[in-house]
Amino acid sequence: MFKAFKNRRPWIVAVIATVFDPVVAMLYVGKGVLALLYFVLQLAAYVLTLYLWSGGHIGLPMSTVLFATGLVFRLAGAIHGILIVRNRAADEPVKWYAKTFAFVAIALLYFALTQGNKLFFYPTYYMLTDAMYPTLGPHDAFFVSRRAYDGHAPGRGDLVAFGKGLSSINFIKRVVGIPGDRIQMKGGRLFVNGASVGLRRLHADDYVETLPNGRNYEVRYVPHGGLGDSTKVFVVPLGDYFVLGDNRDDSYDSRFALGYVARNDIIGKAEVKYFDGASRRFVFEWIH
Question: Pick from 8, 131, 181, 204: CA 20 to 30 A from residue 109's CA?
Fold first, then answer.
């Protein structure tokens, strides 16, 4: 390992660029300015991709586009790094940040701030539909906290991200029923444990719904206009949750085949929106 750091092997830089990141690969070959340039270019590519995707110019899911963009950068970084190593003078001094221990420390820190954050703390999610409108609209981007439920359970009114079974699709819905609750829809109105929740009209088809615990949020529905407007009584089993979309007439949720959401399937809580798809601009808004 230490010899590889000293001699800067082409295959090593190729592995670093493709497995980790071209930024780390440029640090490995002692090119700090190029490392910064790759970082800026990747950030600019992300902003441009998000802008084009939110405008409907890219028909693929955002995650697919980001994977393809990242792959292009990794391959370019690998080729670039190999060329730098092959043309490097034998007596060229090793920069301080490219020395073994400094490089490993910087690489680990970079990984923790980028990939580590996504894996363990605040992954990014993107809305594909209007099922959560008006809280979240199509092409909105937001952070989900993976640590939100460390030590306590999800509560009524929380916006949660979850998966179902072996499917690779993740959902974003609002918890309206906790274990033991009796949930029913009657004529478009939500009933929790036999009582109608508070409902105040804002304008047109937008309302403010208030749950028994005082949590309130905006919903959209056309009275008596949707398939899920009237349902049977659902008794939420122990360890499960009942979820709804805020756009009641255009949401696939616990009223239908999606069913209850198991606690173990919940990934985290949606907390901050940082990109608004409708206006195509970056924002910072707490999600309620």
Answer: 8
Helices 32-54/62-86 angle, 10° precision: 160
Give yes or no for a contact between 28 and 103, defined as CB atoms under 8 angstroms apart. Answer: yes
pLDDT tens-place string over residues 181-210: 999 999 889 999 999 999 999 988 899 999
Q: Do 20 and 14 contact (CB within 8 A), yes or no?
A: no
For the chain, where do the domains classified as CATH 2.10.109.10 start and end? 124-286
User: 177 and 185 in contact (C-beta within 8 Å)?
Assistant: no
Structure tokens at 20: 């980790």
pTM: predicted TM-score of the whole model, two decimal places: 0.86
Name the nearest CA neighbour of 280 among 52, 29, 12: 52
Q: Which of 129, 142, 89, 90 is nearest to 253 (CA)?
A: 129
Q: What is the b/e burial string over 183-209, where b = at least 16 CB atoms within 10 angstroms of the residue's CB?
A: bbbeebbbebeeeebeeeeeeebebeb
Residue-wise pLDDT tens digits, 67-119? 999 999 999 999 999 999 999 877 788 889 888 899 999 999 988 888 888 87
Eight-class DSSP state of 230: S
